[in-house]
Design a protein that fits this description.
- By secondary structure, this protein is of the alpha+beta class.
- Strands 1-2 form a two-stranded parallel ribbon.
Length: 168
C-alpha cells in the first residue's frame, strides 16, 4: 500500500535539502496535517478551492504581482486530533497538564501576511444609545508597497452565566 503522505513528506525533505526557497501551496478545502514537514517551507499559502483562475492568482501572489490581504478563516490544526476552533470555550482547550494552554493550532484563526506593513492607531470604542458599541481605528500602510489590511475585532464575555467562548 502506498502512503501518499509519506511520499509527500520525502519530496518536501528533498526539496528543502536543495537549499532553495520554496512555498507550500495547500489547494484543498479542508486542512491537511503537515506534521514535521511544516518547518521545511519558507512560506505556506492556504489556497482553498480557488476555482478556474486560481492557478493564475496563485502565480501572481507568489511572484509579488499581487499583495495578499486575506486572513485565515479557521484555525489550522497542528495534528489530527487537535482541531479546536478559534471561538472555543476555555474549558475545551486543556493541555497535557490539565491546564488551559491547550489551544495551540499550527496557524491561528486570522493569521495572514502581506508584502507590506500596517499600523493600527487611535482605537476608540464608543457605547451607542441603543446599547451597542461602535469601534473605530486608523489603519496606515507603513510599508513600501500598496496593500489593504483586514481589521480584526474580537469580543469576549468575562462574566457569563454560561461558559463563553474565549473570543468571538
Amino acid at each position: 500500500r502506498v502512503d501518499s503522505a509519506m511520499i509527500a513528506a520525502k519530496i518536501a525533505e528533498r526539496m528543502a535539502e536543495a537549499g532553495k526557497p520554496f512555498v507550500l501551496a495547500i489547494v484543498t478545502f479542508r486542512p491537511r496535517v503537515l506534521g514535521d514537514i511544516e518547518g521545511l517551507f519558507d512560506a505556506v499559502v492556504w489556497v482553498g478551492e480557488p476555482g478556474p483562475r486560481g492557478g493564475e492568482a496563485l502565480a501572481e501572489l507568489l511572484a509579488g504581482d499581487f499583495n495578499p490581504s486575506g486572513h485565515l478563516p479557521f484555525s489550522y490544526p497542528r495534528g489530527r486530533t487537535t482541531f479546536v476552533t478559534y471561538d472555543h470555550k476555555q474549558s475545551v482547550a486543556r493541555d497535557a497538564d490539565n491546564g488551559f494552554d491547550g489551544y495551540n493550532p499550527l496557524f491561528a484563526f486570522g493569521d495572514g501576511l502581506s508584502y507590506t506593513e500596517f499600523s493600527h492607531t487611535d482605537l476608540s470604542v464608543i457605547a451607542t444609545p441603543d446599547g451597542g458599541i461602535e469601534v473605530e481605528v486608523t489603519v496606515s500602510n507603513t510599508g513600501s508597497r500598496a496593500g489593504m489590511d483586514v481589521v480584526q475585532v474580537y469580543v469576549g464575555d468575562a462574566y457569563a452565566t454560561v461558559t463563553p467562548a474565549v473570543r468571538r
